[in-house]
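Before the break, one more example. Copy the sequence into your notebook; we will annotate it together after we see the structure.
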Amino acid sequence: MNPNETPQAYTARLLGNVGEADPWTVISSTARRLRELIAGRTIEELSRTPDPSKWTVVQILAHLADAEVVAGWRFRSILAWDGIPLQPFDQDMWATTFRYAETDPFESCQLFEVNRASLLALLERVDRERHANHGMHAERGRETIEHLIRIYAGHDLNHLRQIEALVAQLLVDRTSQM
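Here is what the structure looks like once it is written out:
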């Protein structure tokens, strides 16, 4: 979330990323798309950014891996306890504390993939009526399972676009060096 963005604006932006797309299709395909985007790249390449104030691919992948751990906990909590309070987390604090810039992007991608597969299997396995359960996010308010699926789809699309732009820049850099 942008530090100048309200939780409501953040939610609206993520939901806007999804638009008419099927959120289930988005969240089911993200791990594959991430693998494709980083395939054949080096850690050094994935650690570059044209803007030092923005995250690198390495940092984005570490964030996605951590966000998926949070997602797994949130979804499981809501499915088990309708109305449970949900705690927010400060992504920038996590990035600094957990030293995202020093993580292995391929391990982050693998962690994301394993946790996402587990989440998808869980969502398919539980009784469908539990998808109406909700949690009370401390900043964003009431969030049902269906709503969170859309939010995570928008979150995925946001970061996929960032990674796509950074990878495209790598190709430009490679071409200009020839």
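Strands lie at 84-86, 134-137, 141-144. The chain has one domain: 7-176. Try to locate both features in your own notes.
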